[in-house]
Amino acid sequence: MTAYPAWTPASRPGIIPLHPLPFGTILGRSFSALRQNPRVLLGFALVVQTLAYLIVTAAIVGVAWASFTRLDTLRFGTEEFEAVMAGSIAITLIAGLVLGLAAGALGVVVQGIVVIEVAHAAVAEKLRLSALWRQLRPVVWRLIGYTLLLTLAVVIVTGAVVAAIVGIAIAAGPMAILFTVMAILAAIPLTLWLMIKLLLAPSAIILEQATIGQAVARSWRLTRGRFWPALGVIILISLVFGFVAQVVSVPFSFLSTGLTTVIAPTGDPEPSAIIAMIAVLLLTQVVTLLLQSVAVVVQSTATAIIYIDCRMRHEGLDLDLLAYVERRDAGATALPDPYREHIGRAIAPRLPQPAYAVPPGYPPAYGQPPAAPYGQPPAAPYAQPPGYVQAPAAPYGQGPAVGYGPAQQPYGQAPVTPPYAPPATQPAPAPQPAPTEEHPAPAPTAWTAPGTPADGVDRESPWA
């Protein structure tokens, strides 16, 4: 008996096709992936962004209140007043920087959740927030540490450049202006280049559980040859959300101006005008938080899709994902993580396939030589029969010429006889012998259909 495999349904499609992705697919799926699991992606991002905003705002206001209220006990214009003022400003700025870094750490957690969700959505899997957090928890501090180190490096480089500008300004003022312009012009391409080269480091930390150094090296290698598509996707997404933010801010500006004009036409600060302004500001902040949450999700989704695409092109990740989907749909359990199976595998570059590829073993077209075996030179094209040439095309209005005809032979050589040539004229029929007594002529047929009269005329036929 022959054992046939059990029938399994077709695999469910994920949010991206499991093959190297073109630019338009990466950009489009970065926005459409939000519909895959909006409760986890958008809901979690909105909650985290709101909590971070409220905590940072409340903390900065508290620090500023505690530091600036000391000025009430000092007389304006004294040295003590100026010293306390400078100290209060410095404390507030430092508190804002530290709390901003803390809010950025929470944003990194959102990015990690989104990356894991996109990695599972690529193979048509949908997990709860608790399951996503269990996968992110072992590397969350490593991810936050990478973000803090990157921020610290940016602060150190920026501080060094600012210190150099201040030093040049003290020595020579016009040279400081020129140096500032050159520093800004050089910082723009350098920032974009480093941003793309380090773009995939968080994804490597999250999905591969790599160390910070390994993640930086992995991002540097995977973005090789994919710099411009990745840069285009990130810039277009940033431009889209920047444009949307500007469009949304215009109605709120008109609303704030209109309410102020209607409630307080004389310009005097009235309680009703203050309440209206506070309501408009709160509504503006709510919309801003919503846009920021969507922007974080879309940018993190784009980063995860770019990571998957780069690994497909460099390491054949699509083969691992397809094998994982087939085994999972066939009922296999306890499957290994496909994103950690062949990290760093090198594959041959993929060449573009023709539109209509001839399958292996298919007979060649008429007039074409068969494919030569591997390692042997190709066969020569089919030669024409010896001694024959292609007949010229027939003039318009005449019949087609014979396909092949004898070639003109050199003088003194016998002509080559073709294997087959149609006779020039139709031969006359052979004469029939005259009838004799031994071989009389055949009698004519006298058979008639049943019911036909003796004279052979059918009286019932309408044509008789």
Describe this structure in a few short sentences.
With about 475 residues, this protein is mainly α. The chain has helices at about 25-30, 40-70, 80-120, 130-135, 140-170, 175-195, 200-210, 210-220, 225-265, 270-315, 315-330; strands spanning about 390, 405.
Question: What are the SSEs and their pairings?
Answer:
Blueprint: H1 23-32, H2 38-68, H3 79-121, H4 129-136, H5 140-171, H6 173-197, H7 201-208, H8 212-222, H9 227-263, H10 271-315, H11 317-329, E1 388-390, E2 404-406
Helix pairs in contact: 1-10, 2-3, 2-10, 3-4, 3-5, 3-7, 3-10, 5-6, 7-8, 9-10
Model description:
The protein has a two-stranded antiparallel ribbon with strand order 1-2. Mean pLDDT is 75; it is low at 402-407 and 458-464. It has helices at 23-32, 38-68, 79-121, 129-136, 140-171, 173-197, 201-208, 212-222, 227-263, 271-315, 317-329, and strands at residues 388-390, 404-406. With 464 residues, it is mainly alpha-helical. The two termini are 72 Å apart. The chain is built from 11 helices and 2 strands; from the N terminus they run αααααααααααββ.
